[in-house]
Amino acid sequence: MRSITLATLLVLASAVPAVASAQATGDAAAGKLKAYTCTGCHGITGYRNVYPHYHVPRISGQNYQYLVTALNAYKTGQRKHPTMAAQAQSLTEQDIADIASYLAAPTSP
Amino acid sequence: MIKRAHFLALGLLAAAVLSASTAHASGSAGRGMELSKPCQACHGADGNGVGDPQYPIIAGQYADYLAHSLKGYRSGERVNVIMQGFASTLSDQDIADLSAYFASQKSKLGDLSKR
Asked: Chain B residues with CB inside 8 Å of A104's CB?
């Protein structure tokens, strides 16, 4: 009986870190390097998409989970934008987590 | 006679271009605030969210990008069940006003050059 409890606990204990790491944000330092390409459009204040004509959104300081959702939506083609689709398709799940962590991290004053 | 007609046509054209450009650009932040009640449960009163990272911060975002997004949800080009429901009820003017309101609010959003 006691050994069953112990086994259950062990299984639970191994599951907890797995869940935690799945929810954890990526590596912001790695994301900084991977986000270099993003600065070509998102790093220029006032930069506009050509057609249709609108400002490229501000993404620095945006929420982590939203950024992950947005990049995955571009990757799968659910969200349509030729440049963003091409960029997102080149990213792995880890790349997306890292980039989103970098963008969502508080900026140093 | 022909000259006068041309002049008139030019005038009309100029007026049309002017009104088209202002209709595109102008939104009333005040009216946008009044319309923003349904947005607040997820995006917060001023667009800075309610602490749930699945919803984007829309405060301080570019107004024309917000309008582009809302129009995408309205047409169904951009897929999100919740946003589609709200956006389908909005007129172009509503979208311009809401976008003007949230764009005018302070937030930590910025361009990557500031990071």
From this structure: 53
